[in-house]
Write a structure and sequence with these properties.
With 231 residues, the chain is α/β, with parallel strands linked by helices. It contains seven helices and 13 strands. It is elongated and about 70 Å long. Bound molecules: glutamine (GLN).
Length: 231
């Protein structure tokens, strides 16, 4: 008899709550586009994953320091990050939008002067806020997850937040009491990331699996399951 091939289990970091990409369902299982893709890719390529919902910034840092093997968390592929991470092929397009109270008086960037803006630590939304902060003269308050960031705007402490457009759109559809008032800025793509120069085998498996899922219709099935649309 041939000895059973040992299956590698990779430790994958993700955000705590970033629907429709990763969130806990009623059974407290992590689901969403990223989670379903990651599991389907693992199945397709014959490896196992252990999902660690540690939060976006923590997941990014844990991969950077080699404590986790990879991160899938609606993570934008950026020039800056490419200095420390190797990214998979892009798998979803996104951009940063500004969201405010639906009936509030602030609807433009130019109305943020002297006000607070909520962002999530370590995100491209936070970087975007920093890049326009001088021009628009607002203060920045940071949160570790999206829910607390939204809450700060809903309670009126912050005048606006910057969030990824597909996530903000989905959240509003699901009942988050906010309104999007800008077109997506800093548009780019999400990628799966590993530490630069490390875990190249995992990266290859991810890319191969992603290509298979795109070819056999699973990618479309997963995105349609959460977004209900054909792209
Ligand atoms: N796409 C954004 C980034 O990469 C936000 C990711 C997230 O909040 N999970 O920074």
């Amino acid at each position: 008899t041939t000895p059973a091939k040992a299956t590698t289990t990779y430790q994958i970091g993700t955000d705590v709550t970033f629907p429709p990409f990763e969130f806990a369902n009623k059974q407290n299982k992590y689901v969403g586009i990223d989670m379903d893709l990651m599991r389907a890719i693992a199945k397709d390529q014959g490896f196992k994953v252990n999902i660690k919902p540690v939060g976006f910034n923590a997941a990014v840092q844990a991969v950077q320091s080699g404590q986790l093997d990879g991160v899938i968390a609606g993570m934008s592929i950026t020039k800056e990050r490419e200095a420390t991470f190797d990214f998979s092929k892009p798998y979803f397009t996104s951009g940063v939008v500004m969201a405010v109270q639906p009936k509030g008086s602030v609807t433009k960037l130019s109305q943020l002067r002297g006000k607070k803006v909520a962002v999530k630590t370590g995100t491209s939304g936070a970087d975007y806020a920093k890049s326009i902060q001088k021009k628009y003269g607002f203060k920045i308050v940071t949160f570790d997850d999206s829910n607390n960031m939204y809450e700060d705007v809903m309670t009126g402490n912050s005048a606006a937040c910057f969030e990824d457009s597909p996530v903000m759109q989905y959240g509003i559809k699901q009942g988050t009491k906010l309104k999007i008032v800008t077109k997506p800025a800093e548009s780019g793509s999400y990628g799966f990331a590993v530490q630069k120069g490390k875990n190249q085998k995992l990266l290859k498996l991810f890319n191969k699996g992603l290509a298979d899922l795109k070819a056999n219709g699973t990618y479309d099935k997963i995105t349609q399951k959460y977004l209900g649309t054909t792209k």
